[in-house]
Each structure stands twice: as structure tokens, then as C-alpha cells.
Amino acid sequence: MALKLYQFPAALGLPNASPFCMKLETYLRMTGLPFEVRSVTDPRRAPKGKLPYIDDGGTVLADSNLILDYLKGRYGDPLDDWLDAEQRAIALAVQRLIEEDLYWALLYWRWFDPEGWKMTREAFFGTLPGPLKAIVPNLARRGIGKELWGHGMGRHRPEEIFAIGMKDLTAVADFLGRKPFMMGERPSTLDAVAYATLANTIAVPGDGPLKRHALQYPRLADYCGRMRQRYYP
After folding, report:
1. Alpha carbon separation from 115 to 111, 149, 196, 216 (Å, rounded)
2. pTM of model > 0.85
3. 186 shares a domain with 89
4. CB burial class (10 A; 0-12, 13-18, 19+) of residue 200?
5. How many domains does the chain have?
6. How far is CA 200 from the centre of its chain?
7. Is residue 80 in some structural domain?
8. Phi-psi region of 225 (alpha: psi -120 to 50; beta: other; left: phi over 0)
9. Which of 107, 141, 212, 230 could serve as a FRET partner for 116 with CA atoms 20 to 30 Å apart?
10. Using CA atoms, how far apart are residues 64 and 133, in angstroms rounded to an integer?
11. Are 43 and 64 a contacting pair, CB within 8 Å?
12. pLDDT digits over 25-78, tens only?
């Protein structure tokens, strides 16, 4: 029985507009584990109230990182078994930079920068019927604002938030360098993480400070193209 992956529907011209959903789908594609995608539009009924989550033969688990740990424990770790202890530590540090810092700057751009919000509102809520279209987007936006404030990123001025995100993007570009994949000649779990967030920064419609800054590093766009061609042909 194939594992079931519950995630948001595809949007913004990407496999998924959620970096965490896209990370998990990319990982499953990279490892070749059989899975079925189940699209969910309302995450409130999901475990922990967030997407993605999985159902693996009755084992239901939420949070993309906990899911990755579970999958590696149950099915092996084919993507990272070639990394030594130091490389694993470095990969984890880069993952934290991407998911615990850059992601929040990206989230701010999508939900509170005028250009980003215009894109997000249409992509996520454009098909809602009239009355809901007037209410739901602002409720969702208010919830995202509380998350940003609680994290701390939302307490900064817009120019400070974008400066933080740009610094992160530069660090990721410098770390990638001329390597085909983040950790070297072979793909690893870090590539599922990096590709999902970078594609959600670069390969989306609209414009914004983070996208413009990322495109100053052609290696990032080339990397996204390489990953897409390999895993989403």
C-alpha cells in the first residue's frame, strides 16, 4: 500500500506553494518511495493543524522534519548514507538557516508586501465564492501575522526583514558554489529542503526584493532548473 501524502494543491506554477509540502514530495521522489498525493485545502483538521502530513499504512504523522526522521528510520536513508558526521552537521545547519530564517522572510513577502500579497491572495483564495473571498483571506493573513510576530521576524521593519532574507540567500548561493548539489556531487536530503524554498522564491510570478536578489546568483536558478528537470520531468 502506497504512503499517502496530504498537502496543499499545486499553485504558483510549482509542485507546491508550501516549501514544507514541496520538500516532502521532493524527498519522496528523490528516494523513489511509492506514494499518493491527497490534496487538502483546509489544514485545520490535519494533525497539529498544519500540512503536510502522511498516512503510512495507518501510521499518521505530521511535521515534515518528523516525517523525514520516520521515513529514514523505517525505509533507510539512501540520500544521506554517504555523508560523514561533519557533513551531516553542516547540512543540518544550512537546513536550519533556510527553514528557520529565510522561510520567515519569504512568508512576510508573500503575505504582507503589497506585490507578494496580491499574488498570494489570487493564488490561494481566488476561487472562493464572493462572501468568503471577502472574509477568509484577511482571517488567514491575520493568523500568519501572529505567527510572524511570535517568531520574531514580524517585529522588524520591512527593509530589515528583506535584508535578513537577502543575507540568507547569499549564504546559500555561496555554500552551493559550483557544486551540482548542496553537499557535493550527489543529492542529499538538504537538496529537497533547499530546492523547495528556493523555487518558492525564484520560480513564482510577481516580483519582490528576495526574488530579485536571488536572481543575482544565476547558480541558484540553474540549481532549481536542474532539480526540477531531474525530479519533476
Report:
1. 9, 21, 21, 20
2. yes
3. yes
4. buried
5. 2
6. 7
7. no
8. alpha
9. 230
10. 29
11. no
12. 999 999 999 999 999 988 888 999 999 999 999 999 999 999 999 999 999 999
